[in-house]
Each structure stands twice: as C-alpha cells, then as structure tokens.
Design brief:
Layout: E1 10-13, E2 19-20, E3 25-31, E4 37-40, E5 43-44, E6 46-47, E7 52-58, E8 62-72, E9 75-85, E10 110-112, E11 117-123, E12 129-134, E13 138-145, E14 176-182, E15 189-192, E16 194-199, E17 205-209, E18 214-216, E19 223-227, E20 232-235, E21 242-246, E22 251-258, E23 261-265, E24 271-275, E25 279-281, E26 291-301, E27 304-310, E28 317-321, E29 327-333, E30 335-343, E31 351-360, E32 363-370, E33 374-382, E34 385-392, E35 406-411, H1 427-444, E36 448-451, H2 463-470, E37 475-479, E38 496-500, H3 506-519, E39 524-529, E40 541-546, H4 553-559, H5 562-587
Parallel strand pairs: 2-9, 10-18, 26-30, 35-36, 35-37, 37-40, 38-39
Antiparallel strand pairs: 1-3, 3-7, 4-5, 4-8, 6-7, 8-9, 10-22, 11-14, 12-13, 12-16, 13-14, 15-18, 16-17, 19-22, 19-25, 20-21, 22-23, 23-24, 26-27, 27-34, 28-29, 29-32, 31-32, 33-34, 38-40
Amino acid sequence: MKTEHATELSIVFPGEGDHLPCVPSTFVIGSAPPGANVVVNGLPARVHQDGGFIVSIPIEPGRFAISCTATLSGRRLEQTVTVQVAGKREPGPSEECWLDEGSVQPSTDRALRPGDRLTVTCRGTPGAGAHFTIEQLVDGAPMAEMPQGLPRPADSPPPFVFGADLSPFAEGEPGLYVGTYIIGPDDRVRDGRITVSLRGEKGSRAEAEARGRLTVTSPPIPELAETQSPQTVVRTGPGMGYGAILPSGVIVEITGKVGNECRVALSGTCQGWVDERSLTALPAGTPAVMNQIAAIRTTSTPEGAAVAIPMDRPYAVLVAERTDRRILHLTISRAVAHLDWARYGPEEHLVGEIIWQQVDPQTLEVELFLEEAIWGYRAAYEDPGFILHLRAAPPIDAARPLLGRKLAIDAGHSPEPGAVGPLGTLEKDVNLAIARSLDQMCRERGASTTMIRTGDEAVPLTRRPEIAREAGAEILVSIHNNSVPPGVDPERHNGFSTYYWHPHSLALARSIHGRFAGMLGLPDFGLYRANLAMCRPADMIAVLVEPAFMIVPEQEALLRTAEFQQRCARAVCEGLEAFLISELERTS
C-alpha cells in the first residue's frame, strides 16, 4: 500500500451520530497533518509521524460532543462529532421516588412452565421499598436492591477478556432491584401484565409496567419442532453464548419461550435456546417416540473412520471433544440403550474402544476412545441414522511438510470494511494482502490452496466455511486484524492474537502464535479459545489470526507496508509447517 500522509483533520472513530455503549471512556482515532498538536476534549492525543492519532477520553451518558483541534505552524483545524452514549438517568432524591420505566425487565414476552423462575428487575430511587406484581399470580412480591450491579448484557463482552478488569458485573450503581417468582404447579395465565412499584422514605410512590408479558401453561402433549438450518445455533440461554450447532432436520421439544427464542429439551437434563425462525413446528400430536439404540459399528473411510449409530428418528446428538483430541463424548437425546453389540470394522484402526452408559431415562452417553489424535469430525444424519465421520491426520512429508496439504485461506470481511485505522486504512484490504502473500508462500511449498475471496466480492460469513468444506480443506486459516470496543484502551491492550474453538485446532493456534511472538515485534494480545464463526467448523482444523491492531497508529503504519504484510504471512506459513512437523513426530 502507498504511504500517505494526512493533510486535514479527520475523526475516524467515533463517527457522527454513532451510538456507544454505557462505558466510562472511549478511544478516539483519526488523522491530522503530520507534526500537528492534536487535542480532543482537552486531552492531548498521540500523533504518529504519518498523522494518525489516538487518545482515550472520558464520556458521559446521553448526547455527547467530541471536539478535536489540530494546530500546526499557526494553522488551526477543528472538528466536532456528536455521539449518543447509552446510560441511565440518575435517580432523584429519595423523597421524590423515581423509577426508570425503560429499565423494567422482562422487556420481551415469556412463555414458561411450572417450576420455571421469572426474574423481574428495575432501576430507580436507591433505598426504596420495591415490589412486583404478576397479573393473576402474585401481588406485591418483594424485590431486593443489588448495589453490586447486575451481570453484563449478553452482547457486552466483559472487559477482562481484553485484560481490563475481572468483574462479571456492570459497574456498581445504587438503585438496582431484583425479584424472582417460581412458577407454581397450578399457576396459569395468558399475557399476564408485570408491574413494579417503588415506595420512598416519605411515602412517595412510582410504578411502571414491563414491556414483556407472561404466559404460563402446562400442555399435556409435547410440542415438537424440526430444525431448518444446516447450522442451527443452540444457545446456553436467551441471547447467551453458543452451546451447540445442530444440522437441519433434528427434532426437538419446545418447553418455553423468551421473546423470539424457544427453549428446547436436548436430553433428560440438558436444554438450550433456539431462534424460533430456525424451527418448523411439527403437526400437533406428533409423538415423541424414543429411539432404541441396538448397535454401534465403525468402518474405515478414505479420511479416517465413520461411526454409525442406527436410529429411527433424528433427535439431538451433542458431540464433545476431550483431552488430547483422542476422546469423543456423544450425548444422545431421547434414546434408550438396547445395546449388546458394538462392531469394530475390518481395516478400521482409528477407533480403539467404544463404551456407553444410560445416564437417565432419556439420555444415552457414548464415548469413543481413539488410537490417535484427529483433525476433525462431522456429524450427519444419514442412512441408517446418525453417523460421525472422523478425520485422521494425513500423511506428512518430513522434508516438505506442506506438500499435498489442502488449505483454505480466508481474508476476513468484504464488502464491509472491518476495522478502520486512523488514516482510513480498511481492514478488509489489509487482510486480503496478507492472505494473497500466504497463498503464494503455501503454494510454493507444495500446498493445494483455496482463497475464499480473491477481491472485494461479497462472501457471506455463513458461506465461507462451506467453500472450505467443498474444496476438501484440511486446514482453514482466517486472516483478520484487530480492534477493541469502546471502554477498552487500545494503547494498553493491543498486539497480535490467535483464536481457535475445537481442541483439535489448538496445536496449530499455538504454533502460529509462537511465530507471531518471534517475528512481529508487537505485544502479545493473547491466545484465545473463541466461539467465532470461522473457528467453529468441526470437520477441519480451523484458526483465526489477528497479527496487529488497525486502530493503533504505529501498527496501522506497519500493516500498510508490503514488508510487514509478508512478515505476517511468513509467520503463519512457518507456524503451519512447524505444526505439521510436530504432527509427524507425534504419529511416528
């Protein structure tokens, strides 16, 4: 990329009208003429020799102005942007009892069953008496003030992930009230209203109604649905993190609902949450017939092995990879063991032992003990039922470890820009430059490569792993460059980082991370197990790398040079080779 210097003042982030989360500070980046003195809201910014600048400033809830000036040789440039910072109005004095109507939860409708718990929260005058009422169920149930704060929202990563703090709670502020109601066996209500009330010390009172309403039922007939998407996301709670991925056609039982997310029973003791748009309701009265598992057998395949478990109906099978990539744990829902046989196929040497246990009346657990570490697995519902395809390590040439290896290289983002640097450098362009260099280096070493994008074409995120899969990729490497959210100081927390999800990808992530440490000359931002879309493919080794920070001026300047782009690619390439050699040594 051509080196360019800023000639005018430009704030790149935050932009005019941006909405920022409820955090005490944000970074501001932009560009000014090289050598200028830049001040943002009274604080001096650090200006790189190319003119890119960065500074962290305190912010306050509501409409907030960010004013920037740059002075150089008597010339003065000015720019102001106005942003909206999320936050709460401060409660009034205790004698003027006040309640933030927008804070009342639940904010979406709930459909619950007996035994479930409903949590009601609100914010208002500290030290007040707080109660909640659920129409037709309970009147004046007590709420307790929680001065330590509430758990962070699901869409707000805790700052300790980036090294900022260790608290799972939002910043403590008084006036947060929480109450819980346990649904009783005889409780029934449809669209019941939920209200909260506060009473101040001098008798003043405030009341508000939650936007969400409550329905309680206890249907005698199971409500069954079928997954639609080949990548149906099962979350651990409403709006929470990923718990599992199910293919299309899997039958689940719906046992509750929060907003547009359905609670589904995955086994006798395990449940998850699925977006209702990913489910198709089965006809009323569809029986929840149990599968009787009568046999398990293994066969040899060109990639490794296949483990077949015949079953009549496609219920959820959860697969968990255990220590050293040599144990796979299967949790089979709505299944009862009728097992007297497990057959190890001729010429199949990957699966060493199969054991099973009926852990509750509806759940069968199967463990596969493998003779060697795998490079991935793929769960599928095929004739005669559930089949787990295992990918064994391929043969590796000691002299040319990349020879014959099938790689997919993903240049992150496009058409959206990704992170943007102080000088306006687009992450998608830098990612593509590094990916092209990596592609060339790997091809020169004998690898067969697939570039998931070769230019500025739009490739949907969900389509990218499919392209790698269709190309027969054994290894997927996704190239990105980093930023942090508002509230985290990028001048303190920056550098290179590497990400993986499945245990069979950890060794490669460590190998590349080690090469970054030795070759890039940047701070170590960390090695992460991260639930990212490009790390989630289970049927190959998949990692995502972030060699540097787009938003730090010095690192943006490096990323704009062909020399540093090639150094990043070389670090990944050498990390790949070192990983392959270690795999060869492990299997020798």
